[in-house]
Amino acid sequence: MAINPADFIMSKQWILLFLFMLSQVINGHNKDVHTPQYTNDNFSAEIKKKNHFVMFYAPWCGHCQRLGPTWEQLAEMSNEESNNIRIAKVDCTIESILCSEHDVTGYPTLKFFKAGETKGIKFRGTRDLPSLTSFINDQLGSSSSTSMPEDVAPSPPEAVNGLLELTEDTFEKHISSGHHFVKFYAPWCGHCQKLAPTWDELANSLRHDDAVSISKIDCTQYRSACGQFDIMGYPTLLWIEDGKKVEKYAGQRSHEELKAYVSSMLAKSADKSNQKSESTDDTPHTIVSLTADSFKHGVEKGLSFVKFFAPWCGHCKRLAPTWEQLGKKFFGNQNVNIVKVDCTLDTSKELCNEQEVDGFPSLYLYRDGRKIFEYNGSRNLDDLYDFVMIHLQTHDEL
């Protein structure tokens, strides 16, 4: 059967059209699901609607490629319709005029735009998730929070229907003893807003139970308090006992589920207490924890090897078990103290500044109260031990 040339041309056109549409679908699936891509046509209109954190980038840029997964994770956490923040990006190889208007001279450039404003605030910190979320919290907090005058002493927390609203000044002391179920939140977070009435109901239902405290803290206002527990998303619900995180709650957020969780955690704690009372614990404290008030006296005699750290610091976490082992090696040695100082505590921040701590962890050696050496070597147990012994023996020979 002969084929009409016109029919052949039409069928070829349909095939080409089909292939084009298929490529659009495939490309559409490859686009970022969570992060909107802005152009010169929609950028000004979009940033007027709500707060924005924008990455100006180039696809060939290595730093941009490394930041990509973190930026997607940040967008997934933040880009809900109910939130007052949008994570977006602009491809400067396509939108060169737009990037030039916003003084983008290197990639990636990250800028925060407050709703309705056209001038962005440049982010200059490290490009990890905690630093990025802290920056967002700072920017949102600075536009919405009200600060207390410095000469007004903070009031102790007072429960409203069983729920305590904690601040940076009251947080640490409050959680230092007892059992606590704490909600770490941000006012702009949609999930937090949905949880709020249920959390109030939970606190109210347990208001007469002295065994547990239900509380909340606004991480946009009290960032350092939240930073102690590596809060990277909202809401985060933590079970805390005697100042230490025991568990992050990951279950359903209904009143019944939350209340059942509280009951189960109190029961576990009671079992542990019973087991401890049945057996004596003679494990010695091998590490000395110091603050600004105790530091001078704590290092005034002998050799003191001090770790200045932050609980959220990854390198500090990896060093922690080795530091404990180092303490055990020198336990009972009257001439050596293995010490740690938490620089995120309000009682230690000024001390860490005075000791010129500019990164975590910082390992300083003191002799009779005077700093004599900063350790920058390998952080394995043998090297740390040899370092202390060399300085101990050198002093003995003198």
UniProtKB/TrEMBL annotation:
Cellular-component GO terms for this entry: endoplasmic reticulum
Keyword Signal: yes
InterPro entries for the chain: PDI (IPR051063), PDI_thioredoxin-like_dom (IPR005788), Thioredoxin-like_sf (IPR036249), Thioredoxin_CS (IPR017937), Thioredoxin_domain (IPR013766)
Pfam families per the UniProt record, alphabetical: Thioredoxin
GO molecular function: protein disulfide isomerase activity
UniProt keywords, alphabetically: Redox-active center, Repeat, Signal
All residue ranges annotated as the Thioredoxin domain in the record: 11-141, 142-262, 264-393
Any Gene Ontology biological process: protein folding
Signal peptide (residue range): 1-28
Family to which this protein belongs: Belongs to the protein disulfide isomerase family.
The protein's name: Thioredoxin domain-containing protein 5 isoform X1
Organism: Dinoponera quadriceps (South American ant)
